[in-house]
Design brief:
about 110 residues; 7 helices
């Protein structure tokens, strides 16, 4: 895990290309959590629940074909403000998706069920 963190830290952008199919629509790609924690802009395809996450201005979304995905990568590299998106990603990891907040939300949910 430590090696993974080091590799993510040296990246300018983190890529998450997913094919728009039933399997990817119905799952949470766990690597997105590591990407958010790394504090780098994320370039991903518009598939599943992660689309809503990008409303927090954490990176760039693309259609799920290689031509569009490569154009999105080039556009990201040409955008001078891209690193600000990485800061937004890290903020999401530290706040909205922190274990402390998620645990508290889950406990509140369980309390409502009682």
């Amino acid at each position: 895990f430590d090696t993974l963190v080091e590799y993510l830290a040296i990246c300018d952008y983190l890529l998450l290309p997913l094919k728009d199919n039933i399997a990817n629509k119905g799952r949470w790609p766990s690597k997105i959590c590591d990407y958010l924690a790394a504090g780098r802009p994320i370039i991903a395809t518009r598939v599943g629940d992660i689309v809503d996450l990008f409303k927090n201005n954490i990176g760039y979304l693309s259609n799920d074909n290689p031509q569009e995905f490569s154009k999105t990568i080039i556009n990201a590299f040409n955008n001078k403000d891209s690193m600000l998106l990485g800061n937004n990603a890290r903020r999401i990891a530290e706040n909205n998706l922190s274990w402390e907040i998620l645990t508290n939300d889950l406990e509140k949910f369980y309390d409502k069920l009682r």
